[in-house]
Write a sequence for this structure.
């Protein structure tokens, strides 16, 4: 064989498919942001998995003596599969998260939403408190706990509101008398909206700050709600 021979059809098809799957990634994001999140996530998963499989196939072909003259051509086509493969590996290596999407700092008495039901819509996940979810959270996120501060409830309320705004959350309900702040956080890429309630109460220890973060759609949040609560608590302390 010589390098001047026609590129094998299999190699060309690897190029066509990897390019198609690469284009499908932003299309999947746009589909999710457009509201068809189930279809969008399915397309996203297929694109990432397909890219990984094609990259593996390309690597195998490059090792075979039969395809030695076209190793450069295979490598160029395989580059289109790298982004999807990297995204797949980031998902698989991101941790072992439980299939829950409702996280709180107080599993004994979770904060309740007041205004969020009107914001979420009929097709969103339920805001009902489920005992199995609380148990799963205790096992997965045992580090989450009530924040206790010496600040007065008025100052703590103002600080909690400022912290939420600094994190980019959209506050849609606040009631100092009830000690409640409700907000929405929108994820950067997919545009998923998760709702958060911040509850402030006082006792002999000081002002108690609790949070609850709930995804509007999906089964597992891949740790997003717990990470959001941790980020708030760290920012509040600073």
């Amino acid at each position: 064989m010589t390098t001047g021979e026609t590129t094998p059809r299999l190699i060309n098809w690897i190029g066509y498919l990897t390019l198609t799957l690469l284009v499908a990634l932003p299309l999947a994001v746009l589909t999710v942001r457009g509201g068809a999140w189930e279809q969008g996530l399915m397309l996203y998963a297929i694109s990432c998995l397909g890219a990984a499989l094609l990259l593996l196939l390309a690597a195998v072909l490059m090792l075979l003596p039969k395809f030695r003259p076209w190793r450069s051509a295979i490598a160029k086509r395989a580059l289109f599969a790298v982004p999807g493969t990297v995204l797949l590996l980031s998902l698989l290596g991101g941790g072992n998260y439980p299939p829950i999407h409702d996280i709180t700092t107080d599993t004994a008495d979770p904060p309740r939403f007041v205004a969020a039901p009107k914001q979420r819509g009929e097709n969103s996940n339920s805001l009902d408190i489920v005992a199995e979810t609380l148990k799963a959270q205790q096992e997965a996120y045992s580090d989450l706990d009530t924040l206790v501060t010496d600040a007065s409830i008025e100052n703590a309320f103002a600080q909690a509101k400022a912290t939420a705004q600094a994190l980019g959350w959209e506050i849609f309900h606040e009631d100092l008398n009830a000690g409640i702040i409700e907000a929405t956080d929108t994820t950067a890429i997919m545009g998923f909206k998760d709702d958060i309630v911040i509850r402030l109460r006082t006792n002999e220890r000081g002002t108690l700050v609790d949070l609850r973060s709930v995804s509007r759609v999906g089964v597992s949040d891949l740790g997003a709600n717990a990470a959001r609560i941790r980020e708030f608590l760290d920012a509040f302390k600073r």
